[in-house]
């Protein structure tokens, strides 16, 4: 074989450590990790990136991402990230948070960081459930979904309705770009990668706050097989959380 | 009935007439809110999974001010978030039951059992001159008894009561016998106002100190070494005492059940010339300060403090006890007073 002709066309992104993750089969986290890492590599950002990890299933993200990371208390990632970005405005700062972390206990920090227009990129994993603590209701849990704290399924009269944080953030004047994607097919995953790249470009152009919401399968706590969870994400979860660009005032146009 | 510790607390609370629970998920105590989400539904109560620990403790304030028999639960980092609300409960003289199934810290720590929130529970943690009555169950039966008592004590003193367990206790399966349920509608009316002066609060704390101290003394009469432990640690220590008694060593156990008020007088009576005190805690050493204050220099005090993470065995405590008896300082450390 002529070694000169061999060209490396696919490898692990440098922004990911060569570590086994603890995520369950069919979980969207490992895909989201990879997308974030690929985009950081493609934009040459790894050396200037500071990430903030949440509390939740991604609490150990710092073991998987190969760049500097800070672990925030539950829900406070965007407050911690604000402190980091204000000290190092030249660094690339991202938070990686789940729905319990970002949309329940961290709602105040999330809305106010977005409303200040912090130049931070947030990756928001929405799997409609508390994963790490074992399947309790999340604020994003859909009507009728059975969680361990919603006997008989989520009842809007008793448990409230699913919260659409991305729409809420779009109302804030200082948010620049918000898009919702899903991690449940090759097509959707590719779309998610373009959204992540655009979010990162918004920060690199110093435009303001951006967030990419990723609907993410949780087969373990939805009590489904991985493939069923992927199909459920596409056919049911997107009914509560329609996909697409929710807000874009960046003027950056479509990202390839 | 064979039950998991977290479920025992939930069942005892319902039987004690608790009809309101507000909390936020955190490991290792999720089985308690999960149990109550179903159980309170059955008895017409209210279960709300709040958006945060801060929200949940403030819901407790509201429900208690409105006259409800109310509780919340969490584990260490979540209890930190509730501290402001606990201070308000004390200041407003509102009864409530707060369960802390302690885990390793500081910060995020881990989810293994720990006793590292002793200071936070007994010294405050929130702001102001206040005290919380703190109960330390050591078995599922005591979880049932003390949870039941906690609601009555909270009402009696119009003060929050904390049940200080740990992650192991919440998960452990043991047989338990429950008291008959009471009807919350038959509880005496709560027609009091919220404001009381701090000196009156102090009078209440003094009364608690005088009347509510609980402890267990085990084989202490002839003991040359008395181990002092509470909660899960005391179960391990008792195992060590039993093993050593079989080998002829004069070892006993003193187990505080109320951590605040601390059984200072009872422990002081045991501390005398020729009796060594060995404190064993699942943290680097917090309760040991109460032991030092109680002993008042009458006995040598030694400490085995195992921080969150590993779970020691009776053999580990036995090694400590033997080292203290030998006086070689090889296991644990002598506390310089």
From the structure above, extract its key features.
heterodimer, A: alpha/beta, Rossmann fold, B: alpha/beta, 2 domains, 7-stranded mixed β-sheet, 6-stranded mixed β-sheet, 12 helices
Quick synopsis:
The complex is a heterodimer of chains A (256) and B (337). Chain A is α/β, with parallel strands linked by helices and 256 residues long.
Q: Percent range for helical residues of chain A?
A: 25-40%
Biggest interface pair, counts:
A-B, 22 and 19 residues
Oligomer: heterodimer
CATH superfamily of chain A: Thiamin diphosphate (ThDP)-binding fold, Pyr/PP domains
Strand order of the largest sheet of chain A: 2-1-3-4-6-5-7
Which stretches of chain A of 5+ consecutive residues score pLDDT under 50? none
Strand residues, percent of chain A: 15-25%
Please, what is the average pLDDT of chain A? Answer: 95
Q: For the residues shown, what is the average pLDDT of chain B?
A: 93
Number of domains of chain A: 1
Question: What would the CATH topology of chain A be?
Answer: Rossmann fold
Structural class of chain B: alpha/beta
CATH-defined architecture of chain A: 3-Layer(aba) Sandwich
């Amino acid at each position: 074989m002529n070694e000169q002709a061999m060209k490396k066309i696919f490898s692990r992104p440098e922004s990911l450590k060569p570590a086994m993750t603890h995520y369950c089969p069919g979980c969207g986290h490992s895909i989201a990790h990879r997308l974030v890492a690929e985009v950081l590599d493609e934009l040459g950002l790894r050396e200037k990136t500071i990430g903030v990890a949440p509390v939740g299933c991604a609490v150990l993200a710092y073991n998987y991402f190969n760049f500097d990371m800070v672990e925030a208390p539950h829900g406070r990632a965007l407050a911690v990230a604000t402190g980091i970005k204000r000290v190092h405005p030249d660094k690339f700062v991202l938070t990686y948070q789940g729905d319990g972390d970002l949309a329940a206990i961290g709602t105040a920090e999330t809305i106010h960081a977005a409303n200040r227009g912090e130049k931070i990129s947030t990756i928001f994993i929405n799997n409609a459930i508390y994963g790490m603590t074992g399947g309790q209701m999340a604020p994003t849990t859909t009507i009728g979904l059975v969680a361990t704290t919603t006997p008989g399924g989520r009842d809007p009269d008793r448990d409230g309705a699913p919260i659409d944080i991305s729409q809420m953030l779009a109302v804030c004047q200082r948010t620049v770009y918000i898009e919702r994607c899903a991690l449940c097919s090759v097509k959707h995953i590719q779309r998610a990668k373009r959204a992540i790249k655009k979010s990162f470009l918004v920060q690199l152009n110093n435009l303001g706050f951006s967030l990419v919401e990723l609907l993410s399968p949780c087969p373990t706590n939805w009590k489904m097989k991985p493939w069923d969870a992927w199909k459920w994400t596409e056919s049911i979860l997107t009914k509560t959380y329609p996909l697409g660009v929710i807000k874009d005032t960046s003027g950056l146009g479509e990202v390839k | 009935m064979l039950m998991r510790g977290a479920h025992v607390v939930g069942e005892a609370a319902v039987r004690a007439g608790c009809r309101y629970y507000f909390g936020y998920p955190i490991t290792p105590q999720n089985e308690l809110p999960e149990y109550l989400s179903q159980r309170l539904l059955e008895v017409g109560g209210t279960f709300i999974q709040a958006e945060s620990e801060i929200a949940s403790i403030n819901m407790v304030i509201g429900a208690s001010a409105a006259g409800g028999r109310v509780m919340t639960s969490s584990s260490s980092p979540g209890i930190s978030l509730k501290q402001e609300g606990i201070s308000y409960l004390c200041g407003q003289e509102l009864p409530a039951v707060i369960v802390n199934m302690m885990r390793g810290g500081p910060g995020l720590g881990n989810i293994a059992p720990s006793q590292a929130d002793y200071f936070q529970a007994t010294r405050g943690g929130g702001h102001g001159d206040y005290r919380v009555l703190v109960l330390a169950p050591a078995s599922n039966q005591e979880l049932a008894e003390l949870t039941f008592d906690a609601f009555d004590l909270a009402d009696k003193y119009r003060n929050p009561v904390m049940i200080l367990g740990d992650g192991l206790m919440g998960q452990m399966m043991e047989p338990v016998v429950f008291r008959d349920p009471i009807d919350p509608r038959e509880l005496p009316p709560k027609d009091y106002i919220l404001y009381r002066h701090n000196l009156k609060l102090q009078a209440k704390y003094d009364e608690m100190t005088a009347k509510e101290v609980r402890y267990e003394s085990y084989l202490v009469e002839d003991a040359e070494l008395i181990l002092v432990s509470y909660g899960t640690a005391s179960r391990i220590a008792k195992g060590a005492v039993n093993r050593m008694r079989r080998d002829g060593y004069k070892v006993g156990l003193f187990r505080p059940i109320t951590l605040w008020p601390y059984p200072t007088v009872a422990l002081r009576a045991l501390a005398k010339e020729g009796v060594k005190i060995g404190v064993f805690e699942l943290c680097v050493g917090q309760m040991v300060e109460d032991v030092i204050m109680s002993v008042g220099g009458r006995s040598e005090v030694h400490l085995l403090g195992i921080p969150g993470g590993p779970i020691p065995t009776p053999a580990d405590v036995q090694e400590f006890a033997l080292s203290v008896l030998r006086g070689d300082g090889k296991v644990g450390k002598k506390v310089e007073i």
